[in-house]
Structures are given as structure tokens and as C-alpha cells.
Amino acid sequence: MASVEYGDHWRKLRRISALEIFSPARLTSLFSIRREEVMVLLRRLHSVSKHGNYAKVLFLGGAETVATSMEWALANLLNHPDVLRKAKAELDAQVGDRLIEESDFAKLHYLQSIISENLRLCPVTPLIPPHMPSSDCTIGGYHVPAGTILFVNAWSLHRDPTLWDEPTSFKPERFESAGRVDACNFIPFGMGRRACPGDGLAKRAMILTLGSLIQCFEWERVGENKIDMAEKTAITMSKVEPLELMCRAPPILDMLLS
């Protein structure tokens, strides 16, 4: 759909995406599938860390955008242990001794802020898919002829010091208060008619996955040094060095995964 020229065919595809494929009702109906995928991940991690000791885990972010975003999120959290502790405290208070469900998401404001801040600082797609005006227009004072291919640099926009306070710092608190972030300054999924139709699915998957990983395991860096956040840019932006972490499963996880 991203490559289809704007017109009747594109509008039909967009309508199908919004009302059928990615509708809230459809996403809710498929929660059990997302839950089972996360459970597979939790069981694998549990199998290597269930003896009470920390086990070294290698995360490989690939072309799959949610997996890559989770790699960045864990790296950011381990470099900011105070944020990780606050997220864990929120999960303990709002969810308790059961696994996180999608019905809990509305109460997990800080976890949602972590997801947003991770997407701001480490957008998986640093360049928004190209746009092309159908007629001459003016953008930011520049004349743009019809047919010009335009790329929006989301990575640069998200780190613009004129738009963000301490733009290179990982500060989820900036998203906690409604109205503090201008939607035009935060575009990890694009914006307007060409915005990614799957943003709702991606956000649900990210919150469920990251929340489950924080809730179910204790995490530590492999060494004393901070995790290297060097970026490797292709179609998607991943880490230069694959993420290595130490995880330990608490005794209660046996009951949660049974």
C-alpha cells in the first residue's frame, strides 16, 4: 500500500486496512496469538535462567521492526536502571502477581512513555517512506514541484534541540503529561494519510513484550560499562553490536508460566 499512487485504489486499500485488518476489534480478537508468541519467548528465557543464576542472553534485532525496537528498548533500560526500576514498580502495583494483559495497558502510563521515548530516540525506520506531491506546493518555505520524491528524516526530527528538551537523553517522563508532545514532532510511524496503518498493532506488541520481559525477569548488563548504542542504518536502524544481557528468573515465574 505504501507504494500505491494516491487515488481510488489506494483509498480502498486504506479502508480495508483500517476497518478490517488493523481495526481495534480485529487486534483485540488476535490477542491470544500475540500472547502465545510472547510466552514462547518467556519460556525460552526461563529455561536458561531458572536455576537462580544470571544467564547471558543474546538479543538479535532483525528486519522485524518490533524485535529491533525491543532490542533498543532493553539497551536503553539497562543503561538507565532507575527507569527500569520505576517500570517494574508500576507493573507490580498495577498488575501484581499475574502476567500482563492488554486490559492493563491503559493503567501502565510509564511503560507507554518508555515505548514512546524509545521510538523517539531510536526509530526503527529513521527515514519515513517517501512522499510525492501530486501538485506544486511549498514546504518550509521551499518550492516543491509536483512529482518530487520527498524523504522525511524522523531520526533528525526526533533529536532536534529546537523541538525537544535534552534531545539525546532517554527521558520517558517527557511523554507522561498529555499535550506536552506535539504530534508533528513525533512521527515514528509517519503521519497523515500515508502513516503506517499497523501502528496500533505495533504498539500493542511492544507494550506486551517489553512489559512481560520487565515483569518476569531481573536484568543486568554483562559488564560494568554502559551498553554501546552505536547505530547501524539500513532500511531499518539496528545496533552495530548485538545486545548481550544477563537475565535471572524469579521463583514465581514457574507459577506464572505453568
From TrEMBL:
Which cofactors are required for activity?
heme
Looking at the record's lineage, which domain of life comes first? Answer: Eukaryota
Compartments (UniProt record): Membrane
User: What InterPro entries does its record include?
Assistant: Cyt_P450 (IPR001128), Cyt_P450_CS (IPR017972), Cyt_P450_E_grp-I (IPR002401), Cyt_P450_sf (IPR036396), Plant_Cytochrome_P450_Monoox (IPR050651)
* GO molecular function per UniProt: heme binding; iron ion binding; monooxygenase activity; oxidoreductase activity, acting on paired donors, with incorporation or reduction of molecular oxygen
Keywords on record: Heme, Iron, Membrane, Metal-binding, Monooxygenase, Oxidoreductase, Transmembrane, Transmembrane helix
Q: Member of which family?
A: Belongs to the cytochrome P450 family.
What's this protein's name? Cytochrome P450
Origin species, per record, is Populus alba x Populus x berolinensis
